[in-house]
Amino acid sequence: MSGTSYTYSQQLMGTTVSLKLFVENLTAVSAVFNAIEQLEDRLTVNRYHSEVMSINHAAGKQPVAVSKLVFDLISQAKAASLLPDSKFNLAIGPLVKLWKIGFNGHSIPEKDEIGRRLTLTNPHHIKLNRTNQTVYLAKAGMEIDLGAIAKGYIADIIKLLLAQYNIFQAIINCGGNVLTIGYSPITADKQWHIGLKRPFAEANNLLGIIHVEDKSVVTSGIYERYFISNDQLYHHILDPHTGYPLNNELHSVTIISNNSLTGDIYSTIFYGLGIRQGLSELKKKQNIGVIFVTRDKKIIIQSNQHFTFELTADDYQLISYS
Ligand code: FAD
Ligand code: MG
Using one digit for the tens of pLDDT, what is the confidence trace for 75-123? Predict the structure, then answer.
């Protein structure tokens, strides 16, 4: 094994974003972090101003013209929200802002207030006009939230940016969203080795290792952004039908796919579908693989030949459908 690696990190999008390269190219590194900062400025809903916030501020008032990039991401997010049985909903903003899970001031909201906000989360009320490139939220109080998918979208853009610098081997990690580019120059099998985290444990405590080449590995889990009240755990993936955190058998879902936006969309969708329906959907989706980690210590895998998994935790049972 050979190859020197160069790792760079910055705090962005509420997480640590890291980039690992195998050539020293500081121009590329600063281009990457500048691009992420600029994309965050456009997509964030955690500050007063951004392109997405300009849409939210105009809810119930008027359509807002946005850039092609923002329009495209919102179009894809709306399409994912309208898939049959999808619990992904880009209009979930009013509930995310109410619960504040993962932010200061989280609390269990009043039932009536949850009910009131649910009326503001219908994705059909997000009106897209492709010709004018405008987005209109038809009811006052509606809010788009792209927190579930923006990091994947950004990672895919960074892969294209690195290619402009002739960099075809790298890892970008946006906290739970890992995009591997090319093959690994530092492992004997040329595969990237990505750790699958043990839920509710230290970051370096792993359940196993995912081996991939040139793939995105995105995890949606309930063990990082949550709070506990009266012995009940409230996590950040909300059920758009009830307004409460999704309640099922899962601790996390990892999607292995070619591009990271797909992984980000489907990690949330598959979290919502659960194991039985998720595995049946996966038969139609040969372009992705999945790893479910359950509350009762099972790791359920359907690889569709996109990855291999090496179990390291002896208290978990591995069930593989590949
Ligand atoms: P995922 O499982 O991929 O998504 C969960 C997130 O999606 C939730 O946190 C919520 O935002 C949203 N969501 C919840 N339920 C649903 C649903 N049913 N359908 C669709 N979406 C849902 N965090 C900070 O603490 N401070 C910041 O300043 C900050 N800025 C950010 C800026 C950007 C551009 C982005 C992309 C993220 C930022 N974050 C910030 C993090 C953000 O608030 C989310 O916590 C994070 O994106 C969740 O990603 P995930 O991969 O952990 O979870
Ligand atoms: Mg996601």
Answer: 999 999 999 999 999 999 999 999 999 999 999 999 999 999 999 999 9
- Residue 269, classed as helix, strand or coil, is helix
Paired strand residues for 21: 6, 170
Q: Which atom of ligand 1 is nearest to the CA of 102?
A: 25
| 146 alpha carbon – ligand 1 mean position (Å) | 7
Of the CA atoms within 13 Å of residue 63, those in its CB half-sphere come to: 14
Contact (CB, 8 A) for 9 and 1: no
Distance (Å, rounded) from C-alpha 123 to C-alpha 86? 11
Q: What is the pTM of this model?
A: 0.96
- Torsion 90-95-101-103 (CA) sign: positive
DSSP readout, 200-268?
TS-TT-EEEEEEESS-EEEEEESSSSEEEETTEEEES-B-TTTSSB--SSEEEEEEEESSHHHHHHHHH
Rg (alpha carbons) of the chain, rounded to whole number = 20
* Mutational test site, ligand 1, from 268, 269, 270, max ligand atoms within 8 Å of CB: 268
> Ligand 1 centre from 190 Cα, in Å?
32
Q: For residue 192, which phi and psi values (nearest 5 degrees)?
A: -80, 140
